[in-house]
Amino acid sequence: MERALLFLAVFGFAIVGCDGDLLVDNTNPNATTEPSMSGLLSNTILSTSNTTQGAASVTSYYVQHLASPSGSSVDRHFESRFGGTWSGIYGLLSDTEALIEKAEAEDSPHYAGVAQIIQAYNLGLATDLWGDIPYQEALQADEGETTPAYDSQEQVYEEIQTLLSDARDNLDAESRSSPGSDDFVYGGDLEKWRKASWALEARYLNHLTKKSDYDPQAVLSAVGNAFERNADDAQMNYENDPSNNPWHNVYLNQEGGILGGHLSEQLVKEMDGSLYGVFDPRLQVAITDSTETEGDDPPLYAGNRNGAGSGDFYNHLEPKYYASENAPILWITYAEMKFIEAEAALRDGNSGRAYTAYMEGIRAHMDKVGVSESERDAYMNDPAVDVGEDNLTLDEVFKEKNVALFLSPEAWVDHRRHDYDYPDFEPPIDQNPLFQNSQDTDHIRRVLYPLSEIERNRSNVPEVELNQFLWWDQS
């Protein structure tokens, strides 16, 4: 669809900017003071996709999908604050709240329901980076609240589930107006938005595997109401859009001499047969190209050791499934649902259901990224993959889900939940000494709060360290 986006002045407490400010009046005197529901919806969808990619552009180093060509401080787990992501998310919370209020005023609950799902998604993205965050009081800036209190991560998770439940009620209601071409995710298909709400519910319930009240049956119930096929995936496509997929811009910058998008040695080993004894065709089909490996007389595939910078040989993102000009930014997918189902069923003692879901997750993701039927079947029939119902463990589920979450911030949630327990997964070279002296973890567990938030809201910002575990990451 052709997209003419309305870029909005954000009212109240939030801006979208790179400095991480939360409480700034950024009103443009030349902008409309009454943005339409349609404009608000389009803007929040585009901004959510950009914020998702922005978060993944850092977390992909933590999970060693990518590796810095310069051995950057981010790659080595030094100070990480995500100021731009913080600003982007709080701008989105402001816009979605404005859309909810406008939809209620105009008797259009369908718009409110979609906005609540988008708000829940962004809340989840924020709390899985920072843990405790401002939410309830942060939405009261128009009432004079400029130093909002922080809600605990446990409270935020409860708010996410409430938003998703309320969203479904709104989607079921009679509505004067409904999304259509302004909906860049589903084109106004409310049934798919309803499925997306259940998919997000399953995701956030399944994050709680380390908590004593983790309920695999509740996870499986949510999965049963969620996506049924790849066509249900929540994603923003860039077809017929004047802007490129942001990962394509990383590729273009690399081609222009601004190095980036280099694959990690760990990812390459996980997919080229070195670790698991079977070549994963998604490496060639969806991510990079063996004919484009950099260096003299190179191997078929090569990655950088995280923290070490570029070696003699390396592969980087190529314009394939993930980094083509019109590639989608994925929010949550059917393949992820099947791996969540596999994990929850396995934890619930239902190995048959777990194995069926595990194999379907692989099939779904391979079909999505364009692997041929013959290559797909050869991979799935290999004994290293087709391990049999009685031999399936969480390790196989997390391994395959990691591939399906390539370039997704959600992959970092899984690495923490699985305690980075992947074969040969090592800390980066010249890692932050904080982790070398830590008794509890040798990998990064959270990010720090933006400096501007600390300066503005110092009395409320928690004191944290990069090796501290979030609430859901503790038993």
Walkthrough of the structure:
The protein is mostly helical and 475 residues long. Among the domains are: 1-188, Serine Threonine Protein Phosphatase 5, Tetratricopeptide repeat, CATH 1.25.40.390; 247-329, no CATH class. The protein contains 16 helices and four strands. The protein has helices at residues 37-62, 83-105, 109-130, 153-172, 190-206, 216-224, 246-255, 265-271, 282-287, 334-347, 351-369, 373-381, 394-404, 410-417, 433-436, 451-456; strands at residues 133-134, 150-151, 234-236, 329-332. Strands 1-2 form a two-stranded antiparallel ribbon. A two-stranded antiparallel ribbon has the order 3-4. Helix 10 packs antiparallel against helix 13. The longest helix is centred in the first third of the chain and has 26 residues, at 37-62. Mean pLDDT is 92; it is low at 1-30.
Structural key phrases:
mainly alpha, single chain, disordered N terminus, Serine Threonine Protein Phosphatase 5, Tetratricopeptide repeat, 475 residues
Short description:
Helix content is 44%, strand content 2%. It has 475 residues and is mainly α.
Structural shape? globular
Largest sheet: 2 strands, antiparallel
Report the CATH architecture of the domain at 1-188.
Alpha Horseshoe
What is the ordering of alpha helices and beta strands? HHHEEHHHEHHHEHHHHHHH
CATH topology value of the domain at 1-188: Serine Threonine Protein Phosphatase 5, Tetratricopeptide repeat
Instruction: Please give the order of strands in the largest beta sheet.
Output: 1-2
Percentage of β-strand residues: under 5%
Distance between the termini: 47 Å
| SS summary, helix count | 16
Please identify the top-level CATH class of the domain at 1-188: Mainly Alpha
- Amount of helix: 40-55%
The low-confidence runs, each spanning 5 or more residues with pLDDT under 50, are 1-30
Structural class of the secondary structure composition?
A: mainly alpha
What Rg, in angstroms, do the CA atoms define?
A: 22 Å
Number of extended strands: 4
State mean pLDDT (0 to 100 scale).
Answer: 92
